[in-house]
């Protein structure tokens, strides 16, 4: 065990450590800093060898930066490889200090076993030198004795501080080394700019830039290529050292021309301002860009930087290397800056020519604007604009395309073609969504330089080829939004559209767009007026039809004509039917069809259910329909459908839907959709009105026939009663018969029956008449209970009448008696066997009385709710009041209201059913009539 020499006090130790660190940072070199730290380590912890190695992660080795031996032996190893799983490798990976005992015999020593034998080392301490978890090197303290260690806490903490200081020193060393090795483009670039100040012509300026770039990058060769915009190819203009032709006579010939079509991907990347880098392992672009350059120049590594002026491609600079290499960031930056200097250093003559072109274009645009605002005729305006624009741009064709929002695609609003081009078709295909969005988004013209290479506006390729065009420039006349019109200029040859030409087309297009917008507004106003008049005419005709099938057929025909649809269907269904039917259909295209032979199930058909569940117009594609619906409906691929339910009020039951179909490219305007909604809404109300009127007429006819039949039947019964009474009178005249009381009672009953039948068949033949009577309440209830006695006995019901009043009621008592009988009879019918039925009477005040019947039966909740509503929300919908027992109860309620009373059917808290009527005890004037 080695005993270190501790300082006298802790304060003295900190003072010594502070002084050492101060001395370290005052040193100017890294070697001096390492010597200062090593000396203090030896004072603090005496040992044989202090070794500091710099770690190289790529080579997996340690490079000696300091080796200080107490015995004076030389350390002969400059680079020491790291063996897998040796002690130093574990210290680097774990980032923690370690001790190795008897280094000469340890299997973990690796290359250090030989070093330990020569230096006489036994035990060593290893420290990883780190900065922010990045291992920069290793510190080794070797001792010629066994059992070496840092025994005190002060030693451990001090060594931790010193090792951290070593990390900062090695990090500084690595940064300084990197800065020394890195190329700095600023100084040679400033020298280039100074040299260019004395050069005025473009050719020598370009030569100077290429030579300076070649010297800085250190490539095999450096080239400058220029772009010919009319014929669309790059031609070799300059190479490094071009003034010394003999020096390059023995080298390989350069690539003289590069066609933009043959290098389309490269051309597109350069137009976008990209710098193309082809290195040893890393490429800046995809293989589609890299491979043509590598094949054309036959070089493994190269860089290409575009020369741009006002976003227009003038050419490019190219550096190439015969050997695979990775280009550094300063080299890329220098090449990019050099290409930019070319455009900045364009000769004054070129700039003056560009200014003259801009001035001429400005005067042309102003003249066109003046002619546009002086003439309101669309065709003459476009003819004048086309004549001047074709001469200025040297083009062969010009046209204005207007979107057809109804049928899709575009229609030609104006066209002009030269001698080399052909007339364009009057209708153009619709654009793909991505191209439509491109036109709507771009505020500058969309340029096509070569139709074979460019994928923009691909849907119009066939039209361009039919016209014999190879290049085009397209401008949205309403920039930044959906096109109201598109200005297209074309040329029979491939060409690049420069910035000046684009700006001219943009300036003229803005003027044409104003005229087109005004013309479009006038045309829309005319179309809206015509459509409004047509719709009003259709609505008036619908209101004049009084037959449901005629109404359905007229409505479908009118919708088909108004919206120019190839298929319009009207599906209807009844409330008690599971199948829908095709009530009316209009088919104007054989590719559309509908079959009525197959069943259309209301509950399972997708179209019907979507229409019922959606408020408004549903837009969908034919492919969205399930196979069940496709069995009865046939449409072309990708056809679009519009489905609208015949919806009236929210509480009305739906019984129909309109199905419209058209091709996929048809676009419906907001006005057309609104008109469709109005027409369908009007059809729904007219159809409902006719259906309701027809149902009420049918019901009235049935009731009139029934009333006629019953009255004639009662006339026959009255005749039979009169005949029976006459026969009874003749029988009474026989001796010994007329004195019997039985015959007198029978004759009196026949007389009462004849009078009652006479009143019904006479006074109440077609309407109820008032018949005021006075009846004791007790007698009324006794008669009612006698009439239901058979039902009570049949079910063995327990009945009880709760009446303690001797009141006499006056009014339409016969009708009230019939109502009460119906209620008591219904209570007996719905009561279970051996159930209970109670009849209660209770005067409410001096004018009103309440009669209630309670029973143990059950009543449908829907029936109670329908009676409580007081009126039918939908007379065409199914209701429990249309059948027994709801029909009889509804009649009772209606009669009680007409008599000035009230009828209530409800369920009590003990689940008993209560039927109650309230009516006035005295009735002078009957409301019946």
UniProtKB/TrEMBL annotation:
SMART domains, per the entry: GAF
Domain of life of the source: Bacteria
Residue ranges occupied by any GAF domain in the UniProt entry: 29-180, 201-356, 377-526, 547-697
One Pfam family, short name: GAF
Signal peptide: none
Name of the molecule in the record: GAF domain-containing protein
Organism in which the protein naturally occurs: Leptothoe kymatousa TAU-MAC 1615
């Amino acid at each position: 065990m080695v005993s270190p020499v501790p300082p006298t006090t802790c304060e003295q130790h900190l003072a010594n450590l502070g002084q050492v660190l101060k001395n370290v940072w005052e040193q100017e070199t890294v070697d001096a800093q390492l010597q200062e730290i090593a000396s203090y380590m030896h004072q603090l912890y005496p040992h044989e060898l202090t070794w500091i190695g710099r770690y190289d992660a790529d080579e997996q080795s340690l490079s000696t930066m300091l080796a200080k031996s107490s015995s004076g032996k030389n350390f002969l190893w400059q680079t020491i490889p790291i063996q897998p799983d040796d002690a130093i490798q574990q210290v680097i990976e774990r980032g923690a200090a370690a001790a190795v005992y008897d280094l000469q015999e340890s299997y973990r020593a690796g290359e250090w076993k030989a070093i330990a034998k020569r230096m006489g080392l036994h035990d060593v301490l290893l420290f990883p030198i780190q900065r922010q978890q990045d291992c920069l090197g290793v510190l080794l303290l070797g001792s010629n004795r066994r059992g070496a260690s840092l025994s005190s806490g002060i030693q451990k903490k001090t060594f931790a501080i010193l090792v951290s200081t070593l990390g900062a020193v090695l990090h500084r060393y690595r940064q300084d080394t990197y800065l020394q090795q890195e190329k700095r483009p600023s100084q040679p670039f400033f020298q280039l700019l100074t040299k260019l100040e004395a050069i005025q012509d473009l050719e020598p300026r370009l030569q100077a830039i290429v030579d300076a770039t070649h010297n800085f990058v250190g490539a095999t060769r450096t080239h400058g290529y220029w772009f010919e915009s009319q014929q669309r190819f790059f031609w070799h203009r300059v190479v490094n050292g071009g003034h010394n032709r003999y020096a390059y006579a023995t080298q390989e010939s350069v690539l003289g021309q590069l066609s933009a079509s043959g290098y389309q991907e490269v051309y597109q990347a350069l137009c976008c301002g990209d710098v193309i880098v082809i290195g040893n392992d890393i490429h800046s672009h995809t293989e589609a860009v890299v491979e043509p350059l590598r094949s054309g120049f036959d070089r493994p590594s190269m860089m290409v930087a575009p020369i741009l002026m006002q976003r227009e491609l003038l050419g490019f600079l190219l550096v190439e290397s015969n050997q695979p290499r990775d280009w550094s960031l300063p080299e890329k930056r220098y090449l990019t800056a050099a290409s930019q200097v070319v455009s900045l250093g364009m000769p004054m003559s070129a700039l003056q020519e560009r200014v003259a072109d801009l001035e001429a274009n400005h005067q042309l645009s102003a003249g066109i604007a003046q002619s546009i605002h002086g003439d309101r005729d669309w065709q003459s305006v476009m003819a004048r604009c086309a004549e001047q624009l074709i001469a200025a741009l040297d083009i062969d064709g010009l046209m204005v395309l207007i979107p057809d929002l109804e049928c899709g695609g575009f229609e030609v609003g104006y066209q002009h073609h030269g001698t080399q081009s052909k007339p364009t078709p009057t209708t153009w295909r619709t654009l793909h969504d991505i191209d439509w969005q491109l036109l709507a988004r771009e505020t500058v013209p969309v340029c096509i330089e070569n139709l074979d290479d460019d994928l923009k506006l691909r849907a119009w390729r066939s039209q361009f080829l039919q016209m014999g065009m190879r290049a085009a420039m397209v401008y949205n006349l309403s920039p930044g939004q959906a096109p109201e019109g598109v200005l297209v200029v074309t040329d029979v040859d491939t060409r690049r559209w420069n910035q000046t030409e684009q700006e001219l087309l943009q300036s003229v297009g803005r003027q044409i767009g104003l005229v087109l917008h005004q013309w479009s507004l006038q045309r829309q106003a005319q179309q809206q007026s015509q459509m409004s008049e047509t719709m009003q005419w259709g609505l008036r005709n619908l209101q004049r039809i009084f037959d449901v099938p005629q109404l359905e057929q007229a409505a479908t025909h009118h919708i088909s004509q108004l919206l120019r649809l190839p298929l319009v269907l009207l599906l209807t269904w009844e409330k008690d039917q599971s199948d829908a039917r095709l009530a009316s259909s209009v088919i104007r295209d054989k590719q559309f069809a509908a079959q009525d032979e197959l069943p259309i199930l209301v509950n399972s058909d997708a179209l019907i259910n979507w229409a019922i569940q959606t408020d408004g117009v549903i837009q969908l594609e034919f492919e969205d329909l399930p196979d069940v619906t496709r069995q009865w409906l046939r449409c072309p691929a990708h056809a679009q459908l519009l489905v609208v339910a015949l919806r009236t009020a929210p509480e009305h039951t739906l019984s129909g839907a309109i199905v419209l179909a058209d091709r996929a490219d048809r676009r419906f305007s907001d006005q057309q959709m609104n008109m469709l909604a109005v027409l369908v809404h009007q059809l729904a109300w007219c159809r409902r009105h006719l259906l309701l009127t027809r149902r009420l007429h049918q019901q009235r006819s049935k009731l009139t026939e029934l009333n006629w039949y019953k009255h004639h039947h009662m006339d026959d019964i009255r005749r039979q009663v009169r005949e029976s009474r006459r026969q009874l009178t003749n029988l009474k005249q026989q001796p010994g018969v007329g004195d019997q009381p039985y015959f007198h009672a029978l004759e009196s009953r026949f007389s009462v029956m004849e009078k009652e039948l006479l009143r019904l068949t006479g006074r109440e033949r077609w309407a109820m008449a008032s018949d005021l009577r006075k009846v004791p309440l007790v007698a009324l209830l006794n008669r009612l209970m006698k009439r239901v006695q058979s039902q009570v006995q049949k079910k063995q019901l327990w009945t009880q009448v709760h009446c303690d009043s001797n009141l006499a009621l006056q009014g339409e008592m016969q009708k009230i008696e019939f109502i009460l009988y119906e209620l008591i009879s219904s209570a007996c019918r719905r009561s279970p066997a051996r159930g209970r039925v109670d009849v209660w009477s209770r005067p409410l005040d001096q004018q009103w009385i309440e009669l209630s019947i309670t029973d143990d039966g059950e009543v449908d909740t829907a029936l109670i709710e329908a009676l409580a509503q007081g009126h039918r929300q939908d007379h065409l919908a199914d209701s429990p009041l249309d059948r027994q027992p709801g029909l009889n109860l509804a009649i009772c309620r209606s009669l009680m209201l007409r008599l000035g009373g009230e009828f209530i059917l409800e369920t009590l808290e003990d689940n008993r059913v209560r039927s109650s009527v309230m009516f006035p005890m005295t009735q002078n004037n009957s409301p019946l009539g």
